[in-house]
Amino acid sequence: MLRLLLPTLLISATPALAQEAAQPDTGFIFTTFMFLVSGMLVFWMAAGFAMLEAGLVRSKNVTMQLTKNIALFSIAAIAYYAIGYGVMYPGDAWLIDGVFGTFARAVLEPVGLEGATPDLAYASVGSDFFFQLMFCATTASIVSGAMAERVKLWPFLAFVTVLVALIYPIEASWKWGGGFLDGLGFQDFAGSTLVHSAGGWAALTGAIILGPRIGKYKAGRVHPMPGSALALAALGTFILWMGWFGFNGGSQLAMNDAANVADIGRIFANTNAAAAGGAVAVLLLTQLLYKKPDLTMILNGALAGLVAITAEPLTPGLGQATLIGAVGGVIVVFTVPLLDRLQIDDVVGAIPVHLFAGIWGTLAVALTNPGATLMAQLTGIVVIGAFVTLASTAVWLILRATVGLRVDEEAEINGLDVSELGMEAWPEFAKG
Asked: What is the pLDDT of residues 379-416, one digit of tens each?
């Protein structure tokens, strides 16, 4: 009987379903849903950074990296709400037009939208804030790995607070908040420069001011300091790769019609292709240069491919996306030893991956997006690089002059897990 009635029920329900689909809040619902799912994927990247760093630092510093990662994310959530969100998205309330936003905070819609008239052309405030917060936290995560194994916990977290509350929101507002770089035509779809290069510049200045780890460079030679667990580093890379689908896909900022959904699918495919291109390029290049593939380089090659495509994951075809990612991987292979020659100690390779590959990806936008110009892209790179470098340098130097940045020699040799936290990640392998 149910089988006989089912066609009739479906026919009678069709007009009601069509009417429901035509409701003006359908786009609002789907875009809000996209932001929530994409935001959860980008949140998962926090676990990726934690595992990547835990695997690439020595065992005596693993607990410190895990502590830094959960602390910086939590601090970002509070500071971005209190200050950063309003500075980044001031609307019409610029304190300095196109340059510096207001300090207004995000205000969620009332429960059940009672008495509210939300903008049905976009998404809920809560979903938008949640999604944008994940990008802010990612910027801070980039700095953590580069300065590992010798920076004090509390000064580092003090820097993170300034970074997520002011430095990142200010420079991101210049494009995503409708600031002056947006007016100049600068293009950065999901943040190769606004997020990744910005984090890279902050990491570079911090690593230079902090100095290299004890024993890293002796008599003009580089002394390798292998990480504690390549399995964790590989897991972290795969988690980051997965999270990047939300990072780039959610940056479409709309899922309200077939065209936007198709574009999101295109973004996913291009993002994956670029990561694969970066990994394969490094796999082949390290075999050619060193006669053996280098896993840590391959992992960073995949990440560099992801960073490179982030500036424009929509307009390239799959072949172009693969090549953009491959160039990002090649950049890693040549810039990691360059930093060592300059005696800039970047423990996890964050600077080659996020800064250098981010610059390349931002320039590459002009190759595939007809709305972008090389001059506008260069202007954005230089302006944001100069601002983040100067602001970060000032904060690092103030911290070094007041509370100090670096642990003492004994603490560094014994490991930050014991000296700074009094606990170890791998206690069964403790001395004695």
From this structure: 999 999 999 999 999 999 999 999 999 999 999 999 99
Q: Do residues 86 and 106 make contact, with C-beta atoms less than 8 angstroms apart?
A: yes
Q: How far is the C-alpha of 362 from the C-alpha of 352, rounded, in Å?
A: 14
Question: Quick one: DSSP state of residue 212?
Answer: P
pLDDT by residue (tens digit) across 285-332? 999 999 999 999 999 999 999 999 999 999 999 999 999 999 999 999
**Secondary structure E strands in 287-363:** none
* Residues in contact with 240: Cβ distance below 8 Å, sequence separation at least 6, in sequence order: 45, 48, 49, 52, 303, 306
Helix (H) or strand (E) holding 222: strand 221-222
Tell me the sheet residues that pair with 221. 218
3-state helix vs strand vs coil in the chain, percent to 5: 70, 0, 25
Q: Are 411 and 420 in contact (CB under 8 A)?
A: yes
Other C-beta atoms within 10 Å of 124: how many? 20
For residue 39, give both structure tokens. Answer: 């935001």
Tell me which DSSP letter residue 351 carries: I
Partners of residue 270 on adjacent β-strands? none
Q: What would the two tokens of residue 176 be?
A: 């995503």
